[in-house]
Each structure stands twice: as C-alpha cells, then as structure tokens.
Write a structure and sequence with these properties.
- It contains 7 helices and 16 strands.
- The protein is mainly β and 478 residues long.
- It has a single domain (5-477), classed as Beta Barrel (Porin), CATH 2.40.160.
- A 16-stranded antiparallel β-barrel has the order 1-2-3-4-5-6-7-8-9-10-11-12-13-14-15-16.
- β6 (253-261) and β7 form a beta hairpin.
- The longest helix is centred in the first third of the chain and has 9 residues, at 5-13.
- It is globular, with a radius of gyration of 22 Å.
C-alpha cells in the first residue's frame, strides 16, 4: 500500500487521533483480536503464529490485492521454494502472511521456523528534554529525543506437535541486538559478550530443547518467563514502551525446566524449577520454583496464574526468600472490543531498601482495552498502577548484570517508596503483513516518598514527578 507523506508523518510523530480518523473511513472488517490480546501466558510463540497477524480469506476485502500483498503471497508459495511436492495445503494457500527470508516448504514440513524483525524508534519526544537524556525509569524507549534501534531480532525453532499422542522433539534459539538487549541480560551469559557500545548490546534470551509426549511437553534450558501479559519480543506487545510491572516487578528469563500438561479440556498446567530470575550460571546458586495454570472459558475469556518463588539477591549481597504471583484475565467484550487485566504481587524478606532492612512488597494492576477498527488499524489504551512499597524495585534498570550503571539509568535514580502511574494511548497500523507502525502517547507520574540520598525524583534528570512522552516505533518482519 502506498503511504502518503501525511500518514507517515502522523505515524512517526505518534499523533494517534488523525490516524483514527483515517482508519474510520475504511470499511470495517470482521473483528480479530489484536496481536498479544489472546495471550494470557507467554508460550514463546512468535508474531507470525498469532491469529491477528494475517486475515483469513473470508476476512479480507474483496478489492484487488495491493502489490505488497501479492508479493507476500508469492513469497509463501511452493513455487518460490522450488519444491512442488508439498502441495497447496502445506504453504500454497491464499492467506496474506508475512514474507520471510527463510520461508520454504522443506522447512515448514519439518515444523522448522526461522525469522525475525527489526524494530526502531525514530524519535521519542520528551518535552522536558532531560539533561541526562533518559526518560526516567520508562523502558524500552528509555532515551529521550533520539533514534533507537530497539530490536534486531532473529530466532530459529522447531515446534513440537504430538496432536495429543506420540513423541516429538523440538527447541529454539533467539538472538537480540539493540538497545533493548541491555535490559534482557542473564547473569553468566549475556554479560560476557564483548560489546563496547554504551547502549547497544547482544543477548541470547532463549536457548532450550523441548520434548513432547502425548499431552506432555518438557522444556529444558534458557527460556522467557511466562509471567505477566507483556513480553520481551516487542512484536508480542501492543505498545512500544513497557509498564513498570514488567520492567521492575517480574523476571525476564529463567534457566531450568518447565513441564506442561494440556490434556484437560480447558485447563493447562505447568510446573518446574529454575536458577532464579534472569540467571544463566552464577548469578544465583539456588533453585527456585515456577508454576503455571491457564483456564479458558466457554465465552473465549481466559484466566492465567503464574507463581515464581525462591531465594534471590536482596540488594545487600545476601539471598533471601522472594515470592511473585501474576494473574491475567482476558475477555472479549464485543465482536471488536477486548479487555485485559493483570495483577502482580511480589514479596521479598529482609530486603535492603531505602527505608531499612525489612520486607519489601511490590504490587499493582494493569488494565488494557483494545478496539479493532479494520484489517489495518487497532487502537488501545493501557492504565497502570504499580506500587513499590519500600522503594526496593524501581530505579536503575533491572535486571542489571553489567558493572556500574554506564549502560542504563544510574542507581542513584532509585528509592521511590510509593506509587507509579501511567496511561498510554496507542494504535497499531499494519498496511501490509510485514510492516507495523505503533504510534503512542504516554503520561507518567509518581506519588510517594523519595528516599535516595540526592533527593532525585524519577523524571527529568531527577527534577520532576511527572512526564509526557510522544513517539512510537516501526517494525519490519522478515
């Protein structure tokens, strides 16, 4: 689809309202939930496999396909692979799926998928223009008024498929380069990469093998934590920035084992052990517990519970008991409106905090509302309340396995015993299956006690209690 200069400027500047006016002039298509809405626990699935990633033939407009759509369909045909034996039912259908660099029937027939994406934020406008160029504790787009290559992502996987009986083996490896990599480091692995740039790094957030037998699957290795609603791969989220809940309240990755049973009609259960939060080898010598449960109701709503518990660093060099639970509820309100709610509760005993050596608690509530307008446009809003009761979690970015603070917000910007609030308005515009533009407007504010020695507040280089951001990102899938 051709882009007008006006539409491109709107997308890059993050001005959502004009984009909505343009979207509403199009004929509304049968509704599908936007990417990320149907997930209540992350299952290492990628953007390509989500239902909203491509319309079915019945959902597509009857008009002639655009040049980009025709190219995407041709790219996924068997002829482009030089393999005429796989047949139309394998990969020669008419669905408009993303065109991928490694897209061949020989791989697809073996359940092998190779792909990735590039996600970049051309400009995140912070009207305060903070002297340190940080958008306070906000991430991913943590740098104000400058370009960021957030994620140059690559993955290769073989998904297991037993269809409820039989035996299968699979696995996955992911590589992440960009400014988001420094938030995703695992102790003993990613912090060992030899990278000189201050803000750009390389991470390997997943490297695991998976074995399936009947309704059982066992994952062994390094994998994304299933906690919460939002995820590290930015294509799995609706917004280009993260909530405090995800960045400061939850683990990003685990190293260990997770066994999952899906033999019940509407219930999936998982249980396993890990080496703790964001740890590969030596960051935590103790084993922790990971448990999951997801129930799907008759009305297509779902409820997921994840529990993580074990001994974790307390900020003073010791390991003390830490417990975290997340609950995510997703419900379609109408044919084109979906609601998601997430609650978190974290507790750590004998935590070294700005208010003393005591029990630290962090908890909050995130609420999302999404409306699908047509095949190209979806709009959404996220409202978050996150309370760091003792000022133990929010501050210099976590997880942090690098030495010092040269690659992120300095530790002196911490010790906020109170509540963080944020409201984010955004849109997803997908003019073709390989391109998605995510403009957004975000407002943050803090209410509570500042306990750091310098009296530094969270925003505007330690001088403000609130902040406005306007921006977004552009994602190209390959």
């Amino acid at each position: 689809m051709k882009l007008s200069r006006w539409a491109l400027m709107v997308a890059l500047a993050g001005l959502v309202t004009p984009g909505l006016a343009l979207a509403q002039t199009r004929a509304a298509a049968p509704t599908r939930q936007p990417a990320g809405v149907q997930r209540t626990a992350y299952e290492y699935a990628d953007y390509y496999s989500q239902e909203a990633a491509s319309p079915s033939p019945s959902d597509a407009p009857s008009a002639a396909p655009a040049a980009a759509d025709t190219a995407a369909a041709a790219c996924n045909s068997c002829d482009s692979c030089g393999d005429d034996s796989c047949g139309d039912d394998t990969c020669g259908d008419d669905e408009l799926e993303p065109c991928k660099l490694f897209d061949c029937c020989a791989l697809e027939s073996r359940n092998i998928d190779i792909g990735g994406w590039i996600a970049a934020s051309p400009f995140t406008w912070n009207p305060d223009s903070p002297a340190n160029r940080f958008n306070g504790p906000v991430t991913w787009n943590d740098r104000s008024n400058e370009f960021q290559l957030n994620q140059l992502y690559w993955y290769a996987q073989r998904t297991i498929d037993t269809e409820g009986y039989g035996f299968d083996i699979g696995g996955r490896v992911d590589l992440l380069y960009g400014t988001d990599a420094r938030f995703t480091t695992a102790a003993g692995l990613d912090n060992l990469w030899s990278l000189q740039n201050r803000f750009y790094g390389l991470a390997m957030p997943q490297l695991f093998a998976e074995v399936g037998y009947n309704d059982w699957s066992v994952k062994l290795g390094h994998f994304y934590s299933p906690v919460g609603y939002e995820v590290v791969p930015t294509t799995g989220n609706f917004f280009s920035t993260l909530p405090y809940t995800f960045q400061y309240g939850e683990p990003f990755t685990h190293t260990g084992m997770l066994a999952t049973y899906s033999g019940f009609e509407n219930l999936t259960l998982g249980s396993g052990f890990t080496r703790g939060w964001d740890n590969w080898s030596y960051g935590n010598p103790h084993l922790g517990y990971l448990g999951t449960a997801t129930y799907t109701f008759e009305d297509e709503s779902s409820l997921a519970l994840v529990i993580v518990s074990g001994l974790e660093p307390n900020g003073g060099g010791a390991f003390t008991s830490r417990y975290l639970q997340t609950v995510v509820y997703s419900r379609p309100l109408t044919e084109n409106v979906n609601y998601v709610a997430q609650s978190d509760l974290g507790i750590q005993a004998n935590a070294v905090t700005g208010t003393g050596n005591n029990t630290a608690r962090w908890y909050g509530l995130n609420q999302y509302l999404f409306r699908t307008i047509n095949d190209e446009w979806t709009v959404g809003v996220r409202a978050e309340w996150f309370r760091d009761e003792s000022g133990f979690r929010v501050g210099g970015f976590l997880p942090n396995t690098t030495t010092g603070s040269s690659r992120g917000l300095p530790p002196s910007f911490s010790g906020y015993a109170g509540s963080f609030y944020e409201i984010t308005f955004g849109a997803n515009w997908k003019p073709n299956p390989n391109l998605i533009v995510r403009p957004m407007i975000r407002w943050d504010w803090f209410s509570g006690q500042v306990t750091n020695a310098g009296g530094l507040t969270p925003f505007d280089d330690g001088t403000a209690l609130q902040q406005l951001l306007i921006g977004g990102d552009i994602i190209l899938l390959y």
